[in-house]
Amino acid sequence: MVKKVVYFFCFYFFLSSIALQAQSKFKVGFDMGYTYSNLNANLSNLVESKYSGDYGFGASLTGEYTIRKPIFLKTAVSFLQKNYTFRRTGSRLGWYTKYYNDFLSIPFLVGVTVLGSADISQGLWLKIAGGTYIEYLMRLQRKGQYIALTENRYKKVSETYDFKKNENMLNRFGYGLQGELSLGYSFKKWTFYGTCNYQYGLSDISIANTNKNRQKTIQSYMIAAGTSYQFN
Amino acid sequence: MYLKLYKKTAFVLGVLLAILIFNACELDDKYPISAPEQYTKDDVKSYADLFKVFWTVMDQRYSCFYEQKRKDGKDWDAIYNEYYPKFSALKTFGRSTDDKNEIDTDKVKAIHYFVDIINPIFDRHFFVKIKIPLNRYQYGIFRFQGGMKEQHANSYMFSSKLGYIKKYLGNDTICQKYTLIPGVKKSDLSITYLMGSVKKNPDIYYLTYDSFSLYLSDLTKFLSSKFLNDSNPNELGLRTRNIENNPLLGRITDLTVRENVKELTRAIQSKWEAFTIAPELNVFRTLCRQFMATEIVSDDLLEAARSALIKYDELPVYYEEETYATVLTPESKPYMDWFISEMEQYIGNERNMNDFETAAMAVIERAPFYQNLLNPLHKGTIKKLILDLRSNGGGAVKDLQFFIERLVTKSTIWSYERTKEGNGRFDYTPWIPQKTKPHKLGGIPSNIPIAILTDNYSASMSEITVLLLKSQGNHVVSIGDYTYGATAGVTSNPADFNGGVVGNIADNWFYFYMPFSAVKDANGEMIEGIGIKPDIYVAPPTDAEVTQMENAPDTFVDRVMEVAVNHLSSK
After folding, report:
1. For B122-163, what is each residue's pLDDT tens digit?
2. Domain B158-217+367-408+443-487+527-569 adopts which CATH fold?
3. B82 and chain A: CB distance < 8 Å anywhere?
4. Which of A194, B360, B383, B521 has the CB geometry, 3.0–4.6 Å to B305, for a possible disulfide?
5. What ipTM was assigned to the predicted interfaces of this complex?
6. Which of B34, B423, B432 sits opposite A155 (nearest CB)?
């Protein structure tokens, strides 16, 4: 299943780049950086329990097409680690689970250059963009520490989640809204830029939940640096 | 024109970004969810409410929905969709305006619905008591549990076993019952055990007990008291000068009485002080320290406990007014009260003499368990063991550390356990491997053949014991019937695990007894609701055999015991 999804995304990106490159208004870029994610969940009925954010790694292969100056469309194939931690607090401190989620994400953004002009041969520019994304959870690893009651002690456990059994009824497909702010400097065809984006998950991470009050969604930030090349 | 488009687009995107960023700060607990403990009687005004509270508590806290769904294919939402309309259709609820015939009809329907819902629950620890209106004025408490429609096989009840099993055992048979407090015979918490070597083959030692409360035998809890390390008893406490210079003593106007009071209290004090450094007590202290390092109850320790207690019993009873009867007057009473209070502080708390009394009595009471079972197991003089867990419904996990680990020689995974974590119905922790570990002081020196006897009422800790000991190798066999199939963990504090409920909910409309975890064996198989298959199956007792074991124990033949003795004799 994972392979099929990866093939789909690669094929999608390949077709997109061919089509857009032909119009000579197309940039291909690559950036990588850190992510910071958290799970938005209502734990008000649980005692001394909370989710907290964690850092991860992210990398994106981007494609950007200028529709009409200064407006552009942007898409990407992104590998994003959306990590977070569940932990007990207070008197129950010691039990925790670190969730390492590896997502393949595809955003569909429309943006505008608000400072400078991105297609000039040289100079500084600032862009903002917003839109939606879809994602697929490729792998989940959990590392935690739990009370082994019969051993009367805390115990560390690490496992790769078995999606075939899917005992926690996790939803591998997700979607949400994405916003992005980029600052860059262009040298003729090459551009170097820094970008920060924010993904606000709208889909529940559980396929079984029917209670909106108990919905759990992921929020994620990414700050990255990269370079792009303009075809013309 | 481009400029306008540019500005509009920038504005729209800017707003979108702002919305996204502010959304990031959305409060988690915008709509607080009621925890089961927060429900009150105001939440239960009808059968529909009764069902809804039951459904919601299960939804939030039941730990086996994944396995439950695999077993009967029905998910918890489907239960709600099917039964909420049915309960809503029951219009009465024991109100003064309800028709009494309809109340009865609705009661029968409600019980029927709850049985239909709860009977398929395969967790065998789980039960719930629900209050249901009987008429306009009264309520009945009805108990529902998983598998409540199933017929259970006959069992070897513990009380019956005590009657007949002695005929299989030799002259060294011991049967004891004790509670948490040495010397106290009646308590909700007690242990009764029976043990001795098997007549037919004295190499085989037999042990049975009514529940997993063997930890009550644990002497380390009593002998770790501070009094063992009381190396300088003259440094603290009541001093003679406190008596001499006491202003309360000066208020006794009759000089003769004052002198008598002074002499009496000084005598009492000095006798107690002398006891705190008495040779008998010091010997007992020394031997207790040796026990803490070895867990061996020697004859010397037992004798020292007896000697010290005899000496202790000879001391004047400083806390009873009778002791002071000859000098007690209204004038001397304030001084006496002060003296008793000071002595209590000094003898009880600083010299820990109360702990001594408990410890010495515990040694005397619990010594047979150590001297006949635990110490011989450690020395290797018990060569083979029958552990009879038939009709043992379980008990405390700490028995694993106190007793079962003494039969463990290697560290290995014997089960996996999982609990709830987050708020979702299926939010589980990973499966946590549970490993055996040999006892730190009193374990067996090498594996011995062990036969564990089980029946359909061997539950919970009995099943944990079977799983744990069988992980040690083929020298451990289980003989008898399938066990009960109740392996999930239960705790009085489920908030520690974010799952399970034990206690009253909604002002006594419910009493839940719901485990907080799920357990599977070392092969990854769930045995909840199924039970552990014995290595050697022996059919459960027939009705005629049950009658015989109760009424004619001398002629009753325990087929499981016979198989176990023959099996171990061949090893």
Report:
1. 899 999 999 999 999 899 999 999 999 988 899 999 999 999
2. 2-enoyl-CoA Hydratase; Chain A, domain 1 (3.90.226)
3. no
4. B360
5. 0.87
6. B432
